[in-house]
Design a protein that fits this description.
Chain lengths: 435, 435, 435, 435
Amino acid sequence: MSPIQDLTIETIDSIHTKEWLRAYQRVRAATDAICEPLHKEDYMVQSMPDVSPPKWHIAHVSWFFEAFILKPFHPSYQTLDPAYDYLFNSYYETHGTPFPRPERGMISRPTVDDVYRYRAHINQAMEELLNDPPQEHLQEILHRLELGLPHEQQHQELLFMDIKHILAQNPLCPVYRGDLVSAPAHEVGELGWHAYPAGVRQIGHDANDSRFAYDNEMGRHRQFIEAFQIADRPVTNGEFLTFMQAGGYDKPDYWLSDGWATVKAEGWKAPLYWVERDGVWHHYTLSGLVPVDVNAPVCHVSFYEADAYAQWAGARLPTEAEWEAVAQHVPLHGNFVEQGHLQPVAAAPGGSSEGPRQMFGDVWEWTGSAYRPYPGFRKLPGSLGEYNGKFMSGQMVLRGGCCATPEDHIRTTYRNFFPPHARCAFSGFRLAKES
Amino acid sequence: MSPIQDLTIETIDSIHTKEWLRAYQRVRAATDAICEPLHKEDYMVQSMPDVSPPKWHIAHVSWFFEAFILKPFHPSYQTLDPAYDYLFNSYYETHGTPFPRPERGMISRPTVDDVYRYRAHINQAMEELLNDPPQEHLQEILHRLELGLPHEQQHQELLFMDIKHILAQNPLCPVYRGDLVSAPAHEVGELGWHAYPAGVRQIGHDANDSRFAYDNEMGRHRQFIEAFQIADRPVTNGEFLTFMQAGGYDKPDYWLSDGWATVKAEGWKAPLYWVERDGVWHHYTLSGLVPVDVNAPVCHVSFYEADAYAQWAGARLPTEAEWEAVAQHVPLHGNFVEQGHLQPVAAAPGGSSEGPRQMFGDVWEWTGSAYRPYPGFRKLPGSLGEYNGKFMSGQMVLRGGCCATPEDHIRTTYRNFFPPHARCAFSGFRLAKES
Amino acid sequence: MSPIQDLTIETIDSIHTKEWLRAYQRVRAATDAICEPLHKEDYMVQSMPDVSPPKWHIAHVSWFFEAFILKPFHPSYQTLDPAYDYLFNSYYETHGTPFPRPERGMISRPTVDDVYRYRAHINQAMEELLNDPPQEHLQEILHRLELGLPHEQQHQELLFMDIKHILAQNPLCPVYRGDLVSAPAHEVGELGWHAYPAGVRQIGHDANDSRFAYDNEMGRHRQFIEAFQIADRPVTNGEFLTFMQAGGYDKPDYWLSDGWATVKAEGWKAPLYWVERDGVWHHYTLSGLVPVDVNAPVCHVSFYEADAYAQWAGARLPTEAEWEAVAQHVPLHGNFVEQGHLQPVAAAPGGSSEGPRQMFGDVWEWTGSAYRPYPGFRKLPGSLGEYNGKFMSGQMVLRGGCCATPEDHIRTTYRNFFPPHARCAFSGFRLAKES
Amino acid sequence: MSPIQDLTIETIDSIHTKEWLRAYQRVRAATDAICEPLHKEDYMVQSMPDVSPPKWHIAHVSWFFEAFILKPFHPSYQTLDPAYDYLFNSYYETHGTPFPRPERGMISRPTVDDVYRYRAHINQAMEELLNDPPQEHLQEILHRLELGLPHEQQHQELLFMDIKHILAQNPLCPVYRGDLVSAPAHEVGELGWHAYPAGVRQIGHDANDSRFAYDNEMGRHRQFIEAFQIADRPVTNGEFLTFMQAGGYDKPDYWLSDGWATVKAEGWKAPLYWVERDGVWHHYTLSGLVPVDVNAPVCHVSFYEADAYAQWAGARLPTEAEWEAVAQHVPLHGNFVEQGHLQPVAAAPGGSSEGPRQMFGDVWEWTGSAYRPYPGFRKLPGSLGEYNGKFMSGQMVLRGGCCATPEDHIRTTYRNFFPPHARCAFSGFRLAKES
């Protein structure tokens, strides 16, 4: 069911290596499937500096295997074009000067066909390597593959985010896929709360757990958490509409100073992708422009909006330690990409003795915690050390995955992060408060 | 040979209308030919706000016929998609809010195939209309066609400019066409001068001349021109290199104040597309990156650079009246798009009793004249009045056409214009001085 | 009455040199008088990059005499502080790197008192020099003085402009001087026109005229002017209000493209300094905030606004050649700084056989001519060559002086210039049209 | 010795209220003393948007008492000018629209003398009020005074920071005060470490402690701190020079991504105010430009620079919980404003059994903690709620006070905060590492 999580590199033998090859093939195929509905023109658009053209994504994830596995370890690897190392390096400054990010949409050659040829070239070389690996490097190869696969999964989610942003620029509101699974029609009901006592809790990935985790999750450590309550589900579109109708975007009272400045500078009046048509709020989704579902979790809000809503509601956002402490007792299921909605949906009715609903999937949940290193944090050696650590400034932690995340990509300890103004991710939030 | 110039609308009959239809077909086919070497990905790039994606150009020139001819005059015209009127209006503010220019590269749908379908749709409707025109509107239809054809020719030149700029962003220096005609290997020799006496001269398009001219050329009028001399040919790459080696880009002495500020802000060290490789100056051309030909006219320089060179050389740029007075006696031949160089080339040796060499073709020549209305200027009625008149501020006049201009697009009275910092056009210059 | 204009350097003797000294003292005293109502705090403000703090102005005009006369020619001149040469150089790049213009307001030391000490130091040295000049340099000294005095007069007008802009930032609307002369209460009546036939006219400063003129006026030359008419007086506030009420600022039809972009970017709804209070248009003047006088010429409008009004009115702006040809027959009188209004006032009733009213004084009149060199233009040698020539790009010519100009500073041939978006000068306009 | 800290509002009687009045007078006099060396011109400069002109500071701190104490509680208070409420409101959006911060330097009136009159007016009214307070409001008055006094002390430190930044713009490097106390000539020696075991610690201001603390310190709560070590003293200029010489500013390896982008965008090569003269590093201080003291703590570095240094040194910054846990055992003494250095100085030799040296005073120490609310954080009611809470985004915590902080302003629990790129404060840092 969830082979990437289950794979470890404790036992290194040929059977095991074959499983890694199959995992590689499965992840690569998932990327291809995401791009299948695209026209070549869609592959080219960079709708803002933070968005990358889909063509760049599919080249970059291939480059990752080339730069960190094939070139160092494949005994006879031949690169297809030496310029690709420059064009498709994302941000590894210690690997060489990356091509400027805001100009990724300027590069029409290599074409989409060229990039798929590059992709096939990498796949063939990876298969060669994993079918006949140099034994003295096999452990390091698998270590890097263990990073390369979730890396590509992250770009799968980024592809959904960026495709959505790209198509949303178009006044024609094009449909990405017309065959997505419809949302269930649940009534979510009143917000409930779960209470937790004060105490020392452990969070972070355990060094004795052989399964993969990013460096930023490493260092299981103790945190003292004062008694708190957490909401039974995320805030819904309907609740957020009430905030909007109460003047939420018009009054500075609820907002962080930077948030209020952003509201005014950007003219925010609603979450990203929302638009009013004939008095009814719609939002752009990967199925096109549809009316907002008041029972579904609000999505595409920034940390600033989440925090302002919480202020208005007399609550706050949970810290990441609180969130993880709660999530440790909740089964890792939810509305992930495999559900085929590509949109958050209303929580199923009825609470749970296990804990709050929708902790996993649907929307990434903004926490009140700035993204900073755990005690004893050590970044990976070499250029891969740039993977996570250098972003530990100016960003907030989000937890739990979303409707565009592969289910086997997520862990209870998983730390996502975005700047507080970002709204492109499928990001929502859940309230917390003191007991 | 040059049917667009020869066509007039004095006689309106069915034979004549057929000639217009053939001219329409010929101009449209020329646009298609320019785009033939492009990949779909090339069609999508907007390398800076002033550049439009080729896809937009080929849609916009079609829209022009739709908006100004088909919708008003075709009795049964059906639009393909009502959104196109918004997407492909360039700058006609009185026609409706145009789609924001800097975002033209954000729109992946309609695709390139869609846009060619739109193009075919317009062609078919235009043929229907011209094969069976409503007689009461025929004169107005031909008047607008008489504007629509040079309009598309202007976009043909813009396509060459924009394709060059787009491909030049790519560190791979892609070749647009590998089969362009090579430049002749002439030695241009020392610069010679032609002298003209003082006197009242007439410039501008004569109202009695039934051939087409833009509104901005209209109003033949008198100007008193003091005695002057004009150079026998444009300034060459070799001469411009001497200026560079003399510190031309390093000393404020020669520069207009705005020009010097631009040099510093943009870090200009050479003309656009020039790059030094192993001590040799190369420049990017539509044939790829090649060494600079010291005998060819310098190209892709701004008015500021032209003016600074002239200051350094103890000369000045000619006014547009001087230029036109000289050009009236020079045959309209030159290195136009039909020559197949798509690059300025060295002047043929030997001067001429007729006047200076290379007045037409090769490079647009910056004049010292700001682009302002002629006496009695009247803009066209309706939205077409925005065609030229509203740009008569902050721009300088260029004359004579270039290696990317169709020969039958140019007249002695033709006024091109660009802001003084612009370098994307195939723009060079010729010196003048007092007698 | 008008000694600066009457002074020449044809005869160089000690009596004559004494007159120059008296002229120097008179001009310098006028600068002091302008600053007399200022607080030290007013001297410090740089309300936008194009505005200089008054402290800077009064230091800079002193620096001009130091750099170009005292240091080269005073046999024993001692500078007060060597840093001043850097701090108070305006834009003479060939003299050394000028202190960055936008940071002039950052420099609190030297203090205002220090700068007045510098001023006194320069005055004393200039008096020493002119009382006992080195005969071999006297001609050059007087030549430079002949430039230095109008230079300081230009800064006197700039001081009025900048003081107005500085105080206008203040929501308290401070009064610069409470004792300015009130405007007369004339009714200007309907607009009349004066017609002129076509012909060759001479404009520019005659080389045989020994009186001073700037280099940019030099080169009396012939221009052919087609028949035209010019308005009897400038456009009034009342007429401009009609344009505003007709939606002048809301419709793109009348505007140059750059002008319309500026209107939208800046949110222009009225001339600079205008503000609506309880339904009545007021404007900030050096006497404070007062209701707009419908009979006075409209002021603080840009070229864009002048041109848009003319388009709306079915007219155009005169060229500078037309303006000068008309002005040659009009006596050089008007509402200059000596009248004590510091604000344009309504034209006196009744036309004139001599020509249009208010050609001189009241408001600088935007012409339709870009600021470009006259035939045979030669800039001054050395750093003084930067005085005028390097600004001959991107600017439009204004003529006739204004209510803040010293009367003896103006000539019929005088060419002022500003960018088309500028509104800080006392700038208005007069209509012209074809005959 | 430290009356502001010792004053509480537990006992409210007339003797006690008199003490408050004396504290008020003492704080206000300290502000006056800071400005005593300034010229009026110095009071006017806003050297960047984050810097306020000193005139604005001295008006704003007076406005604070007027807006929050005199207007609500003085029975007969008359405002001096109603416009001041708009001009001198800093950022209290719920109090009314504040005058735009970046334009504070545009306002020359009220003059410095006017503002001192305003200051005297407020002082007189405050004395009246405290000499004869309305008993029913006395507790609230004292509560607000208890906030108003440290508020003015914060602006005292801001005045030093802003005066330094203002004078540093001036190429003349003016001296603020020539009589500052010279630094001792200590050799600080090798860096030592203090180790602390893991455990639950309490931090934050205790609700039972009647002494004043800001809302952001409130909520004494438990934190689990893993075992760690902390440096015996801050990093010195000499150590930082070693980092610079090792290419610290040239290699991306050590930097956070945002930090590296800032280094490149701003061209950072050294701490703020450092300049190399003839191969020797100097820095601008309030005593003028002096050579850097290698034994003194490095100062005017951003969080990015502190973090990069720590990465390079194989260490990290302490969290604020670690810092506070250590500081709880260190006497609150140090190089504060009362020492008269106005510059950090070398640590006295010899360590201490009590704990690390220089925890208080000298430099604010960047911690590795983002500035976020403590558990149960409640902002103050009304507009005063904007005092601290709305800045809890995008900023890092600094601890311990500096050489420009009044000693009785600081507490062990005191949380200062600045954005990670800020360098204007007297900010340095101390290393920590795992045990």
